[in-house]
Every structure is written in structure tokens, then in C-alpha cells.
Design goal:
GMP Synthetase, Chain A, domain 3; 2 domains; three-stranded antiparallel β-sheet; 33% helix; globular
């Protein structure tokens, strides 16, 4: 009987990463995912989004627990400050996706990471949102992302290669930097 070793790097089961890569390589349909959120407006700038079951490889998958995301606006933007605002959620999504992408790809390559921190800032001009200056976009004009990594035994070049894995493979980074078509449909609530 052959014993299977469970190797974990960066908190990630390396064997499972390689099994997933092999499975998607063999059957590309198994790599197709559909994520869903159900949002409900509460009052003013406050919204709640419930993370819904998602489709993975054609199969509906439920999360282990109910996941709810809260959004609001700070008082200066007429909110009650009961949650991060949507553009702060976007920064969180970018930071966490770049970090996770880097950590997973490093694990698959056998690179141990001791610590990752990131700082993000985004500049937004309210004149776009308020319709005061049509030439100014409603969203971020730019975002600055700084990643700090602690990984022993890496040269400066290896550290640069490691940190490049995050933006290279992050779905959120890709969606923001390359854009993604959004189909918008409006319906009446019965």
C-alpha cells in the first residue's frame, strides 16, 4: 500500500492544486465557474449582498455558511458609515485576489511565504458621479497597490518574480485592468 503525503505550503494543499490543474487541463469545462450575489437596498447608501451558491464545472455548490457583505457610505457622502463603501469593497477584492493568486501560485511552485501585506489607494473625483463634469469618469481614475512580502531565501529577482504572480493570475486584477462587459437589465418588482 502506497502512503500519500499531504504537503501544505502557505496553508494550501499542494497536491490538490496540481490535481485541479490536471483536471481542468483534461476537461476544460470543469474550469468554468459562475459566481452570484443577491443585493438588497436597505436605506440611504446602505445595501446588503448575500453570496449565493455558485456553479463550478456545471454543478451548483453551496458555501459552508451564509455569507453577507454590508456596504454603506461614510457620513460625508450622506451615509451612516455602517459598512465599507462599494469602491472600498473593490479595493478589498483587488487586494485579496492579488494576494490569494500569488500565494496559490507560489505554493504550486514550492515557494514558502511567511507574510504578505498590501496597501491600496484609489483616487476618485466626485464630479463624475454627480454629473458635474461628463469628461471625468465616475469610477477610480487610478489605483496604487503596494505589496510587501516576507519569504526567506529569495533573491531580489526571485522576489520580483514571486510578487508578479499576483497581478499576472488574479481574476479581479484582470477584470479591473482589462475591463469586463457588464450586461445590465432593469426589471420591475411585482
Amino acid at each position: 500500500m502506497q502512503e500519500t503525503l499531504s504537503t501544505t505550503t502557505n496553508g494550501v494543499e499542494v497536491a490538490r492544486i496540481h490535481e485541479t490543474i490536471a483536471a481542468v487541463k483534461e476537461n476544460p469545462q470543469s474550469g468554468k465557474f459562475n459566481f452570484r450575489i443577491q443585493n438588497r437596498w436597505l436605506n440611504g447608501g446602505e445595501n446588503l449582498s448575500e453570496v449565493r451558491p455558485f456553479y463550478a464545472g456545471g454543478k451548483l455548490t453551496k458555501h459552508k455558511t451564509k455569507l453577507v457583505l454590508s456596504a454603506d457610505e461614510p457620513e460625508i457622502l450622506l451615509g451612516t458609515d455602517n459598512g465599507a463603501n462599494p469602491v472600498e469593497h473593490l479595493l478589498h477584492a483587488l487586494a485579496s485576489c492579488v494576494t490569494t493568486s500569488m500565494v496559490y501560485h507560489a505554493a504550486a511552485r514550492g515557494i514558502a511565504i511567511e507574510q504578505v501585506e498590501s496597501t491600496l489607494e484609489g483616487d476618485l473625483d466626485l464630479r463624475g458621479f454627480l454629473g458635474l463634469a461628463p469628461q471625468i469618469r465616475n469610477g477610480y481614475q487610478n489605483i496604487r497597490l503596494t505589496v510587501r512580502v516576507k519569504a526567506s531565501g529569495l533573491t531580489d529577482e526571485e522576489l520580483r518574480d514571486l510578487t508578479a504572480l499576483g497581478p499576472r493570475f488574479s481574476p479581479v486584477y484582470d477584470s479591473i485592468t482589462r475591463g469586463v462587459p457588464v450586461e445590465f437589465v432593469a426589471e420591475r418588482i411585482a
